[in-house]
Amino acid sequence: MADENQNPAAAPEAAAPAPAPAATPAAPAATPAAPATDKPLSERDRQKNINEVFLSLDGGAGDAAPKVVKAKGSKNVTSGIVHVVATFNNTMVTVTDRNGNAIGWSSSGKMGFKGSRKGTAYAGQVVSQDACRQAMGHGLKEVEVRLKGPGSGRESAVRAVQGLGIEILAIKDVTPVPHNGCRPPKARRV
């Protein structure tokens, strides 16, 4: 009977370790490599998994030199239009084919500029280079440049297009001019 009196005291101690086994099944569920089904992988899937592991081990870089990759969904467009929208606060560039279908675009914010730096001439140059490089992946060789807006990124965007070796066929200013439409912003008192 003395043993029975000690067992009730031991019973709460035995109850305390009970939650610990419940936590152990969570460890196998945390492994993402375990397949959801128990089916064996096909040879192709198994090889794909092996390649992913090797790529993750060497940082994604192979032994060979980097390949020149054609743009995704390449269209082979040789002639296009560069639309430059340069406001006081931002510069946006879209490169389209002759029908107006976009083949590359960029903006100051996309290139990492923030705040007042988005409206600078340097931001216009970087944005134009990025958009034109995207379009050159589709085979772009010659363009017509259409400028819109009064921003400081206008001229630098055109120089950036020339610097990439793209032939400029024409430069047009398509800034909309109101025939006394909307009231302009009030003049700054500095």
Report on the structure:
The protein is an alpha/beta fold and 190 residues long. The longest helix is centred in the last third of the chain and has 16 residues, at 121-136. The mean pLDDT is 79. It has helices at residues 2-15, 19-23, 26-29, 43-57, 121-136, 154-163; strands spanning 79-86, 91-97, 102-107, 142-148, 167-173. A five-stranded mixed β-sheet has the order 3-2-1-4-5, covered by helices on one side. It has a domain at 79-173: Nucleotidyltransferase, domain 5 (2-Layer Sandwich), CATH 3.30.420. Helix 5 (121-136) packs parallel to helix 6.
Secondary structure topology:
Layout: H1 2-15, H2 19-23, H3 26-29, H4 43-57, E1 79-86, E2 91-97, E3 102-107, H5 121-136, E4 142-148, H6 154-163, E5 167-173
Parallel strand pairs: 1-4, 4-5
Antiparallel strand pairs: 1-2, 2-3
Family: Belongs to the universal ribosomal protein uS11 family.
Region (Disordered): 1-47
Function: Located on the platform of the 30S subunit, it bridges several disparate RNA helices of the 16S rRNA. Forms part of the Shine-Dalgarno cleft in the 70S ribosome.
Strand segment count: 5
Mean pLDDT, to the nearest integer, reads: 79
Q: Beta-sheet strand percentage?
A: 15-25%
Our measurement of the CA-to-CA distance between the termini, rounded to an integer number of angstroms, reads 97 Å
State the name of the first-level CATH class of one domain.
Alpha Beta
Q: Counting H and I runs of at least 4 residues, what is the number of helices? A: 6
Q: Enumerate the strands of the largest sheet in spatial order, edge to edge or round the barrel.
A: 3-2-1-4-5
The stretches of 5 or more residues where confidence is low (pLDDT under 50) are none
Order of helices and strands: HHHHEEEHEHE
Find the CATH superfamily of one domain. Ribosomal protein S11/S14
Protein name: Small ribosomal subunit protein uS11
Function: Located on the platform of the 30S subunit, it bridges several disparate RNA helices of the 16S rRNA. Forms part of the Shine-Dalgarno cleft in the 70S ribosome.
GO molecular function, one term: structural constituent of ribosome
GO biological process, one term: translation
